[in-house]
Amino acid sequence: MPLNSQENKKLTEKLTLVDSHCHLDFPDFAAELDAVVERARGVGIARLVTISTRVARHAAVLAIAERCADVYCSVGTHPHYAHEEPDVTAADLVARTRHPKVVAIGEAGLDYHYDNSPRDAQERGFRTHIAAARASGLPLVIHSREADADTARILEEEMGQGAFPAVLHCFTGGADLARRAVALGHFISFTGILTFKNSNALRAIAAALPADRILVETDAPYLAPGRFRGKRNEPAYVVETAKVLAETRGVALEEIARQTSENFFRLFGKVPRPASADEFDHPPKLDAPAA
Fold first, then answer.
1. Count of domains forming the chain
2. Which of 168-191 are b and which e, b meaning 16 or more Cβ less than 10 Å from the residue's Cβ?
3. Range of 172's domain?
């Protein structure tokens, strides 16, 4: 028997999740974007944020956000491309945030694993994006890979110039970076990496963080969680990361869904909360679709 609207509303309020970071503009999704978004809706993913990697290609990211009611976007330059967009200014970024669907700055930061862009260019871009987050009040989505010390240093230096909201996305850093980021008031977001067998150290960090500072994401099409490892990731699979985060922290899955969603809407304050269960075409279920 189908749920009536009141029962559906209660279920949705209990089980809503958010994918705070995905890349729906990537070619991996071109052939079935609508189906991917629908599958996310079908398991109770209320909001998705598709993340910009190049300002020069922001129009494509924004077009997806405009096309899909549940999808919002950021604007920014990934550290891999910092050297390609050295002339992007904080004012340029802030101007693009005037669109109602642009809800964050980034992703920007430091990537010392690949070093695709010179490190000085990465740092300049990082600081430019921090300035834009400070000016706009929108959260900065931070990419930090094998750059813990410099990431923490820059965040602490810049916080001394004025506060700004931020999340360290796809967190794979050490406990010290997590501690210093949280001390600045920032958030920590986990991907499917949390579910990998060799991620014990990361799970220990996730277990110790304050409940009001944790988020979940997919970083789709990358980093499919353990159950789907080796396949293309998609927003519906954020459920799997939420399950492992709940187990890691010793709480119910429903509590992780509630807490991470509440944290998301506090950080991404420009994103409207779901008005009711009527936004969903299907009753949400905290179970990812079969591969």
1. 1
2. bbbbbbeeebbebbbeeebbbbbb
3. 13-279
